[in-house]
TrEMBL record:
PANTHER family: PEROXISOMAL 2,4-DIENOYL-COA REDUCTASE (PTHR43296), PEROXISOMAL 2,4-DIENOYL-COA REDUCTASE [(3E)-ENOYL-COA-PRODUCING] (PTHR43296:SF2). This is SDR family oxidoreductase. It comes from the Bacteria. Residues 212-222 have a biased composition (Basic and acidic residues). Residues 199-223 are annotated as: Disordered. SUPFAM superfamilies: NAD(P)-binding Rossmann-fold domains (SSF51735). InterPro entries: DECR2-like, NAD(P)-bd_dom_sf, SDR_fam. The lineage of its organism: Bacteria, Pseudomonadati, Pseudomonadota, Betaproteobacteria, Burkholderiales. The keyword Ribonucleoprotein does not apply. Keywords: NADP, Oxidoreductase.
Amino acid sequence: MFQPDLYAGQRILITGGGTGLGLAMARKLASLGAEIHLCGRRLDVVEAAAAQLKADFGAAAFAHALDIRSPEAVQQTIEDLWQNHGPLTALVNNAAGNFVSRTEDLSVNGFHAISDIVFRGTFYVTQAVGRQWIAQRLPGAVLSIVVTWVDTGAPFVVPSAMSKAGLDAMTKSLAVEWGPKGIRCNAIAPGVIPTQGASSRLRPGIQGNEDSAARRQADNPMRRLGTGEDIGNLAAFILAPGNGWLNGQTITLDGGDALANGAYFTEYQRWGDEDWARAKQQAISANQP
Ligand code: HXC
């Protein structure tokens, strides 16, 4: 689909890039010649992912331990990256956190656990990178990963739905504000692309839910779920040098699922107290190292 050296000379930071969708996008961009910087909370995970990118693609790949919930840590990491490696050419806002819960059961900390990562943390990184680009009069490109819920809302993941809608608004707002400075901002709204991180927290195997993946596949107009290759290809298209007029867009990548089936998780309306207790337990055990 792409010229093999399309990304030569590009330096891209991917937040939460050690696993899941972030790593899938990293693999595609590395395979096309980009220098990749991965950041995540667990240094061992991002280091292993960077080593894999080197081994598989001969890519220049670097790992940074970073919790994007800390604005000070974000600022320091961006400054260090600029100083030690040079200016970024693109940023992929991929880091996220989520779990399913009845909204009335959420604690304040539970709400913050999601919104501090997705809503606030993504802003801190975007602002820190944007400031560098603006101060040095450099062009740049931001790609944020949202979800089709920005259009439909989503029951049982309200902190995520609110936060991702905020990122969609950030994308559109900054496209206009920073466009004249040569900084493009776009987003991908993926449908179901199974990853271990998301499945363990959003689709725990509970009564009535065992066939959830199979059903979503059958209901999808393309009769399949998404893959890392799908999102890698779209990310590579959106960020491609030469794609300079694509700005302020949130592109849905779901095989037409949202058009056909609308909001996710409506089946959880049927869950009782026991199902919710088990879902929480399974999600929390997914957090154990
Ligand atoms: C209810 C929960 C909970 C759960 C945590 N909490 N998990 N409440 N149900 N399943 C509550 C805790 O009880 C606590 O509140 C508060 O949240 C903070 O919990 P911590 O474990 O201390 O949080 P933390 O270590 O910061 O972990 C953040 C996390 C975790 C978001 C909870 O899941 C995580 O690190 N996730 C990162 C990876 C991830 O989520 N990937 C999936 C992304 S999918 P109290 O009151 O008890 O102190 C996605 C959208 C995909 O983003 C869309 C696909 C269609």
